[in-house]
Write a structure and sequence with these properties.
The structure holds 3 protein chains of 3 kinds. By secondary structure, chain A is mainly α. Chain A has helices spanning about 1-35, 55-60, 65-95, 100-115, 120-130, 135-140, 155-165, 170-180, 185-190, 195-225, 230-235, 245-255, 260-285; strands at about 40, 50. In chain A, strand 1 (about 40) and strand 2 form a beta hairpin. By secondary structure, chain B is mainly α. Chain B has 2 domains: about 1-55, no CATH class; about 60-275, MetI-like (MetI-like fold), CATH 1.10.3720.10. Chain B is about 65% helix and about 0% strand. Chain B has 14 helices and no strands. The longest helix of chain B is centred in the first third of the chain and has 33 residues, at about 1-35. Chain C contains 18 helices and 13 strands. Chain C has helices spanning about 1-20, 65-80, 95-105, 120, 145-155, 175-180, 190-205, 215-230, 245-260, 285, 300-305, 345-355, 360-365, 375-380, 390-400, 405-410, 410-425, 430-450; strands spanning about 55-60, 85-90, 110-115, 155, 160, 160-165, 165-175, 210, 290-295, 310-315, 330, 335, 370. In chain C, the strands form 3 sheets. In chain C, strands 7, 8, 9, 10, 11 and 13 form a 6-stranded mixed β-sheet that branches. The longest helix of chain C has 19 residues, at about 1-20. The chains are: A mainly alpha, B mainly alpha, C alpha+beta. Chains in contact: A-B, A-C, B-C.
């Protein structure tokens, strides 16, 4: 027992870089933003302590807050499962030993390399504007042009498309995870006569579960904070139908210079994400299997 | 038997090609647009250039101020490569600590690690700016490189933790019996198996840092030190004509290094636990 | 173990000390010269002009402006051996965010190009910019119109920046398109005529053709807000924060906009969402399917490209006899001096050179619009360096100028409130009378919170 404890304490040494990094680079900004959230701070002057004023305003008066929260939830529910399903499906295809698979893998990752590039806005316009390619193709089958970006009911799904299109990173992570599943499991199962579907559910998913879990958590945290797609394509419009929380927060911080209010908004988001993440972690022990036999 | 394999291969290829075409179509537009004149891009005439023009490349390459795009490419490399290297090293070390050791407070610290991801960056920007100002790191690449050495990217730590944890501890125990200390276990057992994961860390950090605009904007003032993302937006102004063909040409050039990197790093995705010592 | 702990503790303490200190010293006297680039050799501080001084100059712009300004920087260095200017330039995106971060951290440049409305926001709590009156011995102010300086560059008697150029809101017409549709070339616009001729235009050209193209944000400003100001003759929001209109006035203006949309006079809002600030890139503008647009004169060269002859400037729609045309005439940008600069004297000299010296004026030409300095205009006219279209447009704007807008009108949050409601109306989400009520109620509340 004593030996184990001593050995375990070496763990502190390994995580020391993070501890130092956290204390030097992250602790102060986090505490500062917490302080700002209880202040009014315009960046230009001093931060003025105002107690709970920001939080009260958020929950009682701010219509944009409610709207952005709803928009963001819609966005997460729509884009997250789609993105992960595509990522897993394609990763499995790309796991096969096909000729030229390297090229295919690169092709599927390229959209993620674009990121929030400047070029995205003009590409998106080219495809989805009133005179864009999609509408031109629709004209061939006699369909009236659709306002993909301009229609408040469609715009959110349109920018969600950008996210789903960029499923490459999740796919790569799944691919790496698939590579870690020993071939012999599948071989043994085949000998036992298991069908492909059975193998998927009884070998692939359980072995991949830590990675699936990771992707769900990370993509969820990222989607809640999503900002770029709205900023680059629609600027939150039309009629705030794509006014994601991340953008709403950014506007308050850097457009209206209400840094205190923006800080309060980020802490509210923090709590929301924390709650969802916590729930996912709690439930994870039911379906996530680690090689070290432990759980979260 | 043979027929069945070909059929499933055929369907796989078919799906991959169709969806792949949709995935890459925007990039095709980018490539073709880079060879058009600016007027042509905006008039949306057709996707294929009516008249091939290298204006986008020539004018885009020689930007104002005496620097060519090469400067910006090299700058970005100077910033990205150390960041990536440090990230890979520090994330792995920290992840190993969390994954394989059971020290007091581990759970709480891990929760702390992940929760730092949940706070949006916008509000942390100004305090962090103050920190880097105090260190005199403004207008340098230090704000990117140094934090990377201290595993300040919970995404990668968490990812490595998950991968390390999916490796059975039997291997570790066997090595321990053979007399390995913890670092040797990491180096000889864990890392080889985690190659795909480790290189994912490398590629992602490369791409994300390569694409970073806002942080670079805030920390870098000298035009000579601009990264690609800053350079691409350098001439975008409401009161000025945007030369989209230049932007497309230079965007094309700037996504080439990550693409090439990804393509060549793929051999690390072939290995994994399947080739490690479990069988024996 | 203990050793590790103590080493760790020391690192921690160091980190906290270094990171947390001077956290709230926004008014710190850290000047621009102390932000270190690790390997520079020219940031030597000096109190006299013996040694070489380096001044930082930041601006935003496109290619042309960068080239012109860099030429100025080089020429200045050649003519003044003791001073060199370090240019820090880029695009518009993120400029303001970066500037305010720098101001918050005390690391802003010496000479700063700013958008005119920013001086209100940026001088609320602190004296961010140098009062140029204190360095008046180095700068010649006579080439500027006194009223212009007073209205737009001065707060509380302090002159906070010099205007680079004059800008104003004007209509840009595609002469041929209008002529062909039988619209009088010399027509003097008002709102009724806009509607009438718009219907005529549409009937003539048919589907996918519209007389007027503007983004939602622009329609809100140049149609909705101007309509109200012209009908009431008042300011939109005066300096005391009082509204110059009521819900009924707003309702009428919204109803007018609906008419424009329903009669296909203006391009539908669904098609404009992705073109905020980039209407010149809209396919309908490029393909000549629209007849005119309303915008700041400085944007006209971008709209017009090489085809200047096809277009002419015109006064925007104005209700005859109104007390307030609402037309905004203002500086394109201001050049201001950082109040924390170590070298105020040297910077003032640079500023003077920028605005008044013949060589500099020629190098800078019209990269920032038609200059606000009469001297500069004279020099450039003699060189034929001013585009006729833009010169004409500025003249029209000056002629039709309205009452200067209060700082409330330019406030970002207030602007966003206007745009939001106008958008809702345009997308037929709420009707004009509802909108009028909401606008007034919410505006009053918002303005109150800012007082």
């Amino acid at each position: 027992m004593q030996k184990n404890k001593k050995k375990d304490r070496i763990g502190y040494l390994y995580i020391l870089p993070w501890i130092v990094g956290f204390l030097v680079f992250q602790l102060y900004p986090i505490l500062a933003s917490l302080y700002y959230s209880f202040s009014e701070y315009s960046l230009i002057g001093e931060a003025e302590f105002v107690g709970f004023k920001n939080y009260i305003q958020i929950f009682t008066e701010d219509r944009d807050f409610k709207n952005s929260l709803i928009v963001t939830f819609k966005y997460v529910i729509y884009s997250l499962p789609l993105k992960l399903m595509f990522a897993l499906f394609i990763a499995m295809l790309l796991n096969m030993k096909l000729k030229g698979i390297n090229i295919f893998r690169t092709i599927y990752y390229i959209p993620s390399i674009f990121g929030g590039s400047v070029a995205i806005s003009i590409i998106w316009r080219f495809l989805f504007s009133h005179e864009g390619l999609i509408n031109q193709l629709l004209a061939y089958i006699n369909v009236e042009p659709i306002a993909w970006i301009g229609n408040p009911n469609l715009a959110l799904y349109n920018i969600g498309l950008l996210t789903v299109w960029q499923f490459g990173s999740s796919m790569v992570i799944f691919l790496a995870g698939l590579k870690n599943i020993p071939e012999i499991y599948y071989e043994a199962a085949k000998i036992d006569g298991a069908s492909k579907i059975k193998m998927f559910f009884h070998i692939t998913i359980p072995s991949l579960s830590p990675i699936i879990f990771f992707n769900i958590i990370m993509q969820m945290i990222n989607s809640f904070q999503e900002f770029t797609s709205a900023f680059v394509i629609t600027k939150g419009g039309p009629m705030k139908s794509t006014y994601l929380y991340g953008m709403f927060l950014y506007d308050n911080a850097f457009k209206y210079f209400k840094m205190g209010y923006a800080s309060a908004l980020s802490w509210v988001l923090f709590v929301i994400i924390l709650v969802f993440t916590g729930l996912l972690f709690k439930k994870s022990s039911m379906w996530v299997h680690y090689g070290d036999g432990g759980d979260m | 038997m043979r027929k069945n394999i070909s059929k499933s291969h055929f369907t796989s290829y078919l799906i991959l090609i169709i969806i792949g075409f949709i995935m890459i179509f925007p990039m095709i537009y980018l490539v073709l647009g880079a060879f058009k004149s600016n007027q042509e891009i905006l008039s949306n005439a057709s996707i294929i250039p009516q008249k091939l023009s290298l204006d986008g490349f020539v004018n885009g390459w020689t930007s104002t101020g005496g620097n060519t795009f090469l400067t910006y490419l090299l700058n970005t490399m100077k910033l990205v490569l150390p960041t990536v290297l440090f990230t890979m090293i520090s994330s792995t070390l920290v992840a190993y600590g969390f994954a394989r050791f059971n020290f007091f407070g581990k759970k709480q610290l891990f929760i702390l690690l992940i929760s730092t991801l949940m706070l949006p960056n916008a509000v942390l920007l100004v305090p962090r700016y103050l920190i880097f100002r105090n260190f005199n790191w403004l207008d340098t690449y230090m704000p990117f490189i140094i934090p990377a050495a201290f595993a300040t990217f919970p995404f990668f730590v968490f990812m490595m933790v998950q991968f390390i944890r999916s490796i059975p501890t039997e291997l570790d125990e066997a090595a321990q019996i053979d007399g390995c200390n913890s670092f040797m276990i990491l180096w000889r057992i864990i890392l080889p198996v985690c190659k795909p994961a480790l290189f994912s860390v490398g590629i992602f950090q490369f791409v994300w840092t390569w694409n970073d605009f806002f942080n670079a904007l805030i920390y870098i003032s000298s035009v000579d030190k601009f990264t690609i993302q800053l350079a691409l937006r350098m001439t975008l102004d409401i009161a000025s004509q945007t030369n989209w063909n230049q932007i497309m040409a230079m965007s094309l050039i700037s996504i080439l290094p990550p693409i090439i990197l990804f393509f060549t790093a793929q051999k690390y995705f072939v290995e994994g636990i399947s080739t490690s010592g479990l069988k024996g | 173990m203990k050793k590790i702990m103590s080493v760790g503790l020391i690192i921690v303490l160091m980190g906290v000390m270094l990171s947390g200190c001077s956290s709230n010293e926004d008014s710190s006297n850290e000047t621009s010269n102390t932000t270190v680039e690790s390997n520079t050799d020219s940031t030597e501080e000096t109190s006299q002009d013996e040694k070489s001084i380096e001044l930082r100059f930041s601006w935003w712009g496109g290619d042309e402006r960068h080239e012109g300004t860099l030429a100025f920087v080089d020429a200045y260095a050649n003519n003044n051996s003791s001073v060199s200017i370090k240019p820090e330039y880029g695009g518009w995106d993120g400029y303001y965010q970066k500037l305010t971060t720098q101001l918050a951290g005390g690391t802003a440049p010496d000479i700063i190009q700013i958008d005119q409305p920013w001086i209100y926001e940026l001088s609320q709590n602190q004296e961010m910019f140098l009062d140029l009156n204190t360095v008046s011995e180095y700068i010649d102010f006579t080439s500027f119109d006194e009223n212009f300086l007073e209205s737009y560059c001065t707060i509380d008697g302090k002159l906070l920046g010099l205007p680079t150029g004059v800008n104003g809101v004007v209509a840009l017409e595609n002469v041929e398109k209008l002529k062909e549709a039988d619209i009088d070339e010399n027509i003097v616009w008002d709102w009724d005529k806009l509607l009438e001729e718009g219907i005529k235009y549409r009937n003539y050209y048919g589907d996918e053709n519209y007389l007027l193209i503007n983004s939602i944000e622009e329609l809100n400003r140049y149609v909705f807000q101007y309509y109200i100001m012209q009908s009431t003759g008042n300011e939109l929001i005066d300096d005391a924060g009082e509204l110059g209109f009521d819900a009924a006035d707003a309702e009428k203006a919204y109803a007018y906009i609906i008419q424009l949309i329903d009669n296909n006079v203006v391009v539908p809002p669904e098609e404009m969402t992705a073109y905020d600030g980039k209407v010149n890139e809209h396919p309908k503008w490029i393909n000549d399917q629209v007849g005119m647009t309303i915008n700041y004169a400085s944007t006209f060269p971008v709209y017009v490209g090489d085809e200047g002859d096809k277009y002419q400037s015109k006064r925007i729609p104005i209700i005859e006899g109104t007390e307030n045309t609402g037309v905004v005439v203002r500086p394109s940008q201001l050049i201001a001096i950082n109040n924390n600069s170590d070298h105020k004297e040297a910077v003032a000299k640079v500023l003077n050179d920028f605005m008044n010296e013949e060589e500099s004026v020629k190098l800078l030409a019209t990269v920032r619009g038609i200059p606000a300095s009469n001297k500069a205009v004279g020099i450039l006219t003699a060189e034929n360096a001013i585009s006729e279209l833009e010169a004409e447009a500025i003249e029209i704007a000056l002629d039709s100028a309205g009452i200067k807008q209060s700082i409330y009108v330019n406030d970002q949050e207030i602007t966003q409130l206007f745009v939001d409601i106008t958008q809702q109306v345009m997308f037929k989400n709420i009707d004009p009378s509802e909108a009028g009520d909401i606008l007034v109620t919410d505006l009053v509340k918002l303005i109150d919170s800012k007082k």
